[in-house]
UniProtKB/TrEMBL annotation:
Name under which the protein is recorded: Osmoprotectant transport system permease protein
Compartments in which it is found: Membrane
UniProt keyword annotation of Transport present: yes
Record has Transmembrane as a keyword: yes
Keywords for the protein's UniProt record, in alphabetical order: Membrane, Transmembrane, Transmembrane helix, Transport
Gene3D superfamilies xrefs: MetI-like
SUPFAM superfamilies xrefs: MetI-like (SSF161098)
GO biological process: glycine betaine transport; transmembrane transport
Gene Ontology CC entries for this record: membrane
Domain ABC transmembrane type-1: residue ranges: 20-121
Topology in membrane: Multi-pass membrane protein
Domain of life from the UniProt record: Bacteria
C-alpha cells in the first residue's frame, strides 16, 4: 500500500507539486490579509478600549465555528474555489492577529510611549 502510494506520488509529481504550490499560495494570501486587517483592528481597539471587548468577542466567536461549517456557509456567497478557502482561512487567522496586536499595544510601557511622543515634532 505504501509502495503504491509512493509510486503514484513519483509518477504524478508535477500534479502534486502544482497542488502544493496552490495550497501554499492560498495560505500566504490568507495570512497576509489577516495580518493587515488583524493588525489594523488590534491597533484600533487598543486606542478605543470600549470597542475591544465586543471586537474580541466577535473574533472569538468566528474562531469557534468548525471549518466545514464555515465552508458550507460561505459556498452560497463565494462559490466553490480558492476565494472561499481564502475567506475561511482569513477568518481563522484573525483571532491570533487581533489578539496579539491588541495585547502588544496595550502592554507597552508608558515610559516608552512618553519617550516616543517627545521625539515627534
Amino acid at each position: 500500500m505504501l509502495a503504491q502510494s509512493w509510486d503514484l506520488l513519483v509518477q504524478r509529481r508535477d500534479f502534486f507539486w502544482g497542488l502544493l504550490l496552490e495550497h501554499v499560495e492560498i495560505c500566504l494570501v490568507a495570512v497576509l490579509i489577516a495580518t493587515v486587517f488583524g493588525g489594523i483592528a488590534g491597533i484600533l481597539i487598543s486606542e478605543y478600549r470600549k470597542a475591544a471587548k465586543p471586537t474580541l468577542v466577535v473574533v472569538n466567536f468566528l474562531y469557534t465555528i468548525p471549518s466545514i461549517s464555515m465552508l458550507g456557509f460561505l459556498i452560497p456567497f463565494s462559490g466553490v474555489g480558492d476565494a472561499t478557502a481564502i475567506i475561511a482561512l482569513t477568518i481563522y487567522a484573525l483571532l491570533p492577529m487581533v489578539r496579539s496586536a491588541y495585547t502588544g499595544m496595550t502592554n507597552v510601557d508608558p515610559a516608552i510611549m512618553e519617550a516616543a511622543r517627545c521625539c515627534v515634532p
